[in-house]
Amino acid sequence: MSPEGHRRTPRFAAVRVALGACGLLLFGAACAGPAPSPADPPTSASTALPPPSPTPLPTLTPVRTPAAGGLYVDAAQPQGPISPLVFGTNYGPLLFVPLQMQPSAQEAHLTVLRYPGGNWGDNNDIDLWNLDQFVAFARQIGAEPYICVRLKGGTAAKAAELVRYANVEKGYQVHFWSIGNEPNLYEDYSVEQFNADWRQWATAMRAVDPSITLLGPEINRFFASPTNNYEIKLARWMTEFLRVNGDLVDVVSFHRYPFPLVFNGSPPTIDQLRADSRKWEQLILDLRSLVRAHAGRDLPIAITEANSSWVPVSNGEATLDSHYNAIWWGDSLGRMIRQGAFMVNQFGISSEWGLMGNYEVRPIYYVYKMYQRFGTQGLYASSDDPAVSVFAATTAEGVPTLMIVNLASTPVTKTLTIAGGPGRVRAETWLLDQDHNAEQIEATELDATTQLTLSPESMTLLVLCDCGPRP
Asked: Rounded to an integer, what distance in angstroms lies between the CA atom of residue 302 and that of residue 183?
């Protein structure tokens, strides 16, 4: 690969500056001031987490109550920049993209690839030729490479050598690194041992390249308000990590696959997915408070593996390959963006969980096509209907955009109010539903207040660019 190909993609430069200067410029409100394991099923308990000893910090800006009367957008109320790294996925030896699907991978405009994705990296060392191939593919599709080094069965010296090879010898400038994958699932491995190991690995890696960005703890689930033994045990992995390593970690990360609810459980239903996506927002808000309490400072938040199911199921009404899984993910992603997530990595680019198979893309792929035109700066938006979401942004050119998600399985008519907007416009319109795969359709006439009818199980993107003559 030529030296030009080793340089960082310029669109990510602002992200690095924001992370170094504040760590929260992408968080909106947070910057206003300076699945159960089969081996450990949930049981009821009254045990509480140890009380933290927080360092006083500025008060987080309260969440605004949604406006009544339908869908509401305030185009004059900016919510801060949207991190470009929320449009990521996982890639690796078990998540390979065949040659015939590589154009589709490039057209998705994925912004970050996490490697090697899943537990392959817990059981194998990353060979240097693997790393070379990965970085080349990431650059080919315009994504930032992100490497998870081996913890289980690995050594700090080997991890540091990967950093040296990638960033010193090869000059790849790989900025994002993490240590271990879902360490809370390792057998005979304690929180205390993990925190000590993580610190040893991190110190060795930073000694080679002090500029790298470290993500952790990469646990498989997170519960901010635990209610049983399993959740309390898992929450302790997060709180103890923050207490011990909150001074070294740059981005706090976790994974989430909400279904099945129990080992050997059934695939999710449409009703279950419809009720789940709203949980992302409170989860991020709760984690942000937990970070403050236990690390004593604000840190960005990343969800580095996510999908609806940790079991590779298909051919169901809401399984990984279904249209409804795509709509769930479109709503989930919008909610994570609204809460200022720094990075989001869907799992994964291929395989049963993937955006694509060997010869075709899956419905979830089109979510990324829809968000390509969404914008770079968030705007305030709210809905009074739990089945219909609205997210708003402006493009780099200052054009307002709205993403409206109808989780209902029937058509819905809603009143859309746009305050501080451009007035009457003929909005460019893109649609993802059962009959349209992120396709442009007839423009939508919008006023300050407009009645919109949304197709069932759909995502609608409105670009308020006054894009054509009125009839």
From this structure: 17
pLDDT higher than threshold 70 for residue 436: yes
Is the pLDDT assigned to residue 221 strictly greater than 70? yes
Please give the torsion angle defined by the CA atoms of residues 454, 455, 458 and 463, in that order, rounded to the nearest 10 degrees.
-50
Do residues 458 and 424 touch, judged by C-beta distance below 8 A?
no
Exposure b/e, 312-335, CB count within 10 A at least 16 = b: ebeebebbbbbbbbbbbbbbbbbb
Domain ranges of the chain: 8-25+83-371, 377-463
CATH superfamily of 377-463: Golgi alpha-mannosidase II (2.60.40.1180)
The pTM assigned to this predicted structure is 0.88
Compute the C-alpha angle 93/84/203, nearest 5°. 60
Q: Which class is domain 8-25+83-371?
A: alpha beta
Quote the pLDDT of residue 45: 31
In eight-state DSSP terms, residue 169 is I
- Distances 98 to 82, 112, 264 between C-alpha atoms, Å: 31, 18, 31
229-233, long-range: CB within 8 Å, 24+ apart, which pairs? 229/40, 229/42, 229/43, 229/44, 229/45, 229/47, 230/36, 230/37, 230/40, 230/41, 230/42, 230/43, 231/42, 232/45, 232/47, 232/48, 232/49, 233/40
Asked if residue 109 lies in contact with residue 372, where contact means CB atoms within 8 angstroms, the answer is: yes
**Cα separation values, 48 from 55, 94, 420, Å:** 21, 39, 47
| Three-state secondary structure call for residue 252 | strand
Integer angstrom CA distances of residue 194 from 151, 176, 302:
9, 20, 19
pLDDT tens-digit profile of 2-50? 333 333 333 454 454 345 434 444 433 333 333 333 333 333 333 333 3
Distances (CA, A) of 459 to 77, 211, 391, 441: 23, 39, 11, 13
